[in-house]
Amino acid sequence: MLSDFIDTANRGGTTGVGMPAVGAGMGEMGFVPRIDVHETDKDIEVRCDLPGIPKDNVKVEANQGVLTISGESQTEGERREGTMHVRERYQGKFSRSVALPPAADLTNTKAAFHDGVLTVHVPKKAEAAGRRITIS
């Protein structure tokens, strides 16, 4: 389910659960940061590249099974005399959302920001691994 959501979001469509893929298109957003999502039996790790963006300009929220990373890149004091020939560095607002499985433990989610990479660890609830149900 997680990989289907991300594949669809990267193509600019809707998620597998019928929500629009936030951050999939430019629209009013300044850019769409790249993410990696890795899932194991114990947790989900989301890594987001945010080079040059101070961590104070980044917000991470987990709500109703959706992890959202948003913020703004500002290029203060970069006005220069002359003509700009190439501008490839991104700026403006950004947002990316990832649908999480029901097993995600949002209360114990942790985030760290180092060298322009935001890493969010979402543990899974132990009981969500499944159990055998006895038929009576």
UniProtKB/TrEMBL annotation:
<protein>
    <recommendedName>
        <fullName>SHSP domain-containing protein</fullName>
    </recommendedName>
</protein>
<keyword id="KW-0346">Stress response</keyword>
<feature type="domain" description="SHSP">
    <location>
        <begin position="26"/>
        <end position="136"/>
    </location>
</feature>
<dbReference type="InterPro" id="IPR008978">
    <property type="entry name" value="HSP20-like_chaperone"/>
</dbReference>
<comment type="similarity">
    <text>Belongs to the small heat shock protein (HSP20) family.</text>
</comment>
<dbReference type="Pfam" id="PF00011">
    <property type="entry name" value="HSP20"/>
</dbReference>
<dbReference type="InterPro" id="IPR002068">
    <property type="entry name" value="A-crystallin/Hsp20_dom"/>
</dbReference>
<dbReference type="InterPro" id="IPR031107">
    <property type="entry name" value="Small_HSP"/>
</dbReference>
